[in-house]
Every structure is written in structure tokens, then in C-alpha cells.
Amino acid sequence: MTINCNGKLLSLDQPKVMGILNVTPDSFFDGGKYKDEKSILNQVEKMLNEGASFIDIGAYSSRPGALEVDEATELKRIVPIVSLILKNFSDAILSIDTFRSNVAKECIENGAAIINDISAGLQDSNMLPTVAKLHVPYIMMHMRGTPQNMQQKTDYEDVVKEVLSFFSERLVTAKALGIKDIIIDPGFGFAKNLHQNYELLNHMEVMKIIEHPLLAGISRKSMIYKTLDITADLALNGTTALHMVCLQKGTKILRVHDVKEAMECVKLYEQLNA
User: 63, 105, 221, 252: which is the annotated catalytic residue?
Assistant: First the structure.
């Protein structure tokens, strides 16, 4: 449960929080909010001060039906942001939310520490070899298809078993290449309908059989706001409720928009299990 982030050994024995920074115009919750240096640095400072162990930067919106973004645009958006953040917060541990190996390589070479890939290497055949060469922690997520068509690919016989099977296969491939620090993300909302998201959450503890740290990304997602018949803007309370469930099911990293509330959830969980 220890990962090596740019030479810093970080234990995941106790749950950690990963703050989301979307530098996209169309992300489902915060698209367009962080588009200049001041707003970006203010948000990063806020998340770090509130207790985030990682900042996850995304320059390609992966919400259902999102528009395709070419590699040049993604690079233009994200690489300067990595340099900007590390110039101002040199100790920040940056995770890069991308499925493209060239984006991963450029960002790591500019000081980022972790690659967070929604496709587990399936969208870019060079991703896993690139991560292996870079010797960085790798978050692999379960998804079918692409963000553009994933919601047409929800025909599971048993979503929990099929997600487990997916990770078993991808882990063999990743480990054969020499990738060591691997984190598993079940992919809530990615190629899963409302019922399947809750089925997966309800049985998330079985993922521990894989023996890799678990990450949960449920913050303000439609599985919450559609169930409550509200909007993403009003889904913080529901997010916090399900974050506690995630922690009780063995999650080690919460990927969130709201760091303060997630940290409070972690603190209460730790007190409950003290």
C-alpha cells in the first residue's frame, strides 16, 4: 500500500484524497471554471490547504457524450498547467488524467508524478509501455468503448464479475511490462447504468481480492444527482454519503471536487475504526 511519487514514498494504509482540477471547457460539473492562471492556482492552493494528497489534472472531458479533443489541444491545455502548478507548489503530487501516452510522457517529464488512465491502456497501445519506462504509479480504470459511446455498452451479465475479470487481464499485461505501483478504479459512471453503478458500489469490497489500492471517483456524478432528482451543483451531500460507503468498502483514494468535505469524511471514518 505504498506508492513512489517522484521519489516520495506515500503510504495508502490510511485513505487519501485526490482533488480534481479540470482545465476543460465542458466537464460535467466544473467545466470552464479554471481557465486562467489565477483561478487555477487559487483552486490548487485551496485543495492542498484542505488536505489533498494529490491533484488530478484533466484536459480531456470524459463525461458521457463529450466531444473528441485532439492530442495537440490536450497537450496545449495541460503541459503549461503542470509547469505552472509545480512552479508555485513544488511539493504538489500531480496526477495526469489522460489515455494518451504522449500526453503522459510530456507531463511526467515536466514534473507530474502519476498517470490516471480511464482506458487502462486500451485507447493507446503505447500507454502501458510508456508508463513502464517512466516508472510512475498508474491508475487503471474500467471502461468499455470511449466517452463518446460508452453508455451504449452496458450489457453486462454480472457487472461485478466482469469488472474483476477486466482488471485481472489488464494487470497481467501491465505487470509483464514492469509496472509496479498500480491503483484500481472501478469506473463509476463509465459504461454503466444507474443500477450497475450501485451494484458495483454495493460489492466494491470484493475488489480487494485484486490486492491493489482502490480509487473511487463518484464525486457529484449522475448516479447521485439522478437518484436524488437534483443537479450536480446540489450533489455534495449525496457525494459525502457515498464516500463513507466507499471507505467502508476498502477504498484508499477518494477522487473529489470538494476536498474539505472528503477529508472530514476520512477523519470520521478513521475515528470510527480507531
Answer: 221
